[in-house]
Write a structure and sequence with these properties.
By secondary structure, the chain is α/β, with parallel strands linked by helices. It has ten helices and twelve strands. It has one domain (6-311): Alpha-Beta Barrel (TIM Barrel). It has helices at residues 43-55, 73-83, 101-107, 111-120, 152-168, 182-192, 211-218, 240-252, 279-292, 294-308; strands spanning 6-9, 12-14, 22-26, 60-63, 86-88, 90-92, 140-144, 172-175, 200-203, 223-226, 256-258, 310-311. This is Phosphotriesterase.
């Protein structure tokens, strides 16, 4: 790679240290093509969430919403300017059950090409891969594994993600279905597909809270995302501090990331639900600081995201 490390935000490339306090995994907009209900599609509510996050000390949010799931990339630009919160947009592809067959067929033979175009040229209007690329450039590639395995669809998307990484330098973020198949994903991306571990972020690890597995995955060198609490994974929230303490004590503090992963309108504080994006800082941060120490929490929210999402971009 050449050049200096930069984080690609919707307002342009920035020095990693300017991210400051970062929510490493969240969603301002999200709508599955096939799994209807509680879509995130309200720009005013997204702005309210971001303002509340900023008032709590937040300075950056990484949105993991990939291609075809209502990214609303143009709105991200306006939201970042209005709130002062730096936003990172995603390219990538989610699990097959989120997409209509015609969409899968349309991109089947050009997935890596689509990722590269989003990263280097900009996200197309209306998320149409053949439309003018008038939106901001994506700053990461988001793909997804299957439950306890890497199925055909997951492998297809991960191979494309690795190809796009090698062409652009972009980090790869992975949705692990219920936190499973973490080691299998790390082995595929960092082994067979030769993606450096420092460019891989595994998400949802708190949904499969097995300390032995987590220590083994941490040994690969990838970043470890603990991205609750959303309503989908509240049953494991009580184990979060113990898991993070064990990993930190084992020497993996520099690999740990925190996010909110707000996936439904009912999980937004601004819509009268919760816990919402601000919860990460208003409630979870002080709770974890008491259990782990402020220095560990500061690393998870500031120093680690600055390294995880920065790369030497090839253009």
């Amino acid at each position: 790679m050449t050049g200096e490390f930069r984080v690609r935000t919707v307002l342009g490339d920035v020095a990693p240290e300017t991210l400051e306090v970062c929510d490493s995994h969240d969603h301002l907009f999200f709508a599955s093509q096939l799994l209807a209900g509680q879509e995130l599609d309200d720009a005013a509510a997204a702005e309210a969430e971001l303002r509340a996050f900023a008032n709590a000390g937040g300075r950056a949010v990484v949105q993991w919403t990939p291609f075809g799931l209502n990214r609303r990339a143009a709105d991200l630009v306006g939201l970042s300017r209005a709130t002062g919160v730096q936003l990172v947009a995603a390219t990538g592809f989610h699990r097959a059950e989120h997409y209509r067959t015609d969409v899968l067929d349309r991109v089947a033979d050009r997935l890596a090409e689509l990722f590269v175009a989003d990263l280097l040229d900009g996200i197309p209007a209306g998320d149409d891969p053949d439309a003018d690329r008038t939106g901001p450039r994506a700053g990461l590639i988001k793909v997804a594994g299957a439950f306890h395995t890497i199925d055909r669809h997951a492998r297809w998307t991960m191979v494309a993600a690795a190809q796009a990484h090698h062409e652009t330098g972009a980090p790869i973020a992975v949705h692990l279905e219920l936190g499973t198949a973490a080691r299998e994903v790390a082995d595929l991306l960092c082994g067979e597909l030769a993606v450096p571990p420092a460019r891989v972020i595994l998400g949802h690890l708190n949904r499969n809270p097995d300390p032995r597995v987590l220590r083994e995955v941490a040994g690969t060198g990838v970043f470890l995302g603990f991205d609750g609490p959303s309503r989908a994974n509240h049953a494991t929230d009580w184990r979060l501090a113990d898991l993070l303490l064990e990993l930190s004590t084992a020497g993996h503090t520099a690999q740990l990331l925190l996010g909110g992963d707000t996936t439904t309108a009912a999980a937004r504080l601004s819509s009268g639900g919760g816990p919402g994006i601000p919860y990460l800082l208003t409630t979870l941060r002080p709770r974890l600081a008491r259990a782990l120490g402020e220095d560990v929490v500061e690393a998870m929210l500031v120093a680690n995201p600055a390294r995880a999402f920065a790369t030497r971009w090839r253009r």
